[in-house]
Amino acid sequence: MDPSGTGNSSSNKQEYQLLKDNLVRSYNKALKKNAPYSIFAIKNGPKSHIGRHLMTSFLSMKGLTELTNVVGNWSDKRASAVARTTYTHQITAIPDHYFALVSRYYAYDPISKEMIALKDETNPIEEWQHIEQLKGSAEGSIRYPAWNGIISQEVLDYLSSYINRRI
Known about the structure:
Number of helices: 7
Shape: globular
Structural class: mainly alpha
GO biological process, one term: DNA integration
Protein name: Tyr recombinase Flp-type domain-containing protein
Pfam family, one: Flp_C
Strand content: under 5%
Strand order of the largest sheet: 1-2
Helix content: 25-40%
Organism: Acinetobacter haemolyticus
GO molecular function, one term: DNA binding
Radius of gyration: 16 Å
Order of helices and strands: HHHHHEEHH
């Protein structure tokens, strides 16, 4: 893994990497300026690291702290304000469905404590199952109107509230 983020595939002994809050701001700006385009088409955007950071923060917000360590955010031992101002991740295999939780391919069932698929993998044209969104603020829709329907409303709201706390 290339800790510099430049795409170099050469091996290196560094196991940890920090993500500063200014990259969160960069991601916020990228969403605002590049709204007509796919999020994966943003050139030189901090997609991978900020995506992991936001996803693990989102898991933590949902009360799934047992998953955050696997994905590479702070553990319960580092759940301090200082720990949350930076981002560390370990080089580890991350199950795809953890990333899919944010994109709404999977959801966490608090009763069975399992990940459940929201889309039938055998039928790619099946409509999405209805997922009740969090009630409350719709500030994500206001901040990122062109991303409505592309990125989950809950995730947009979380990103917007995250930015508001950091700015």
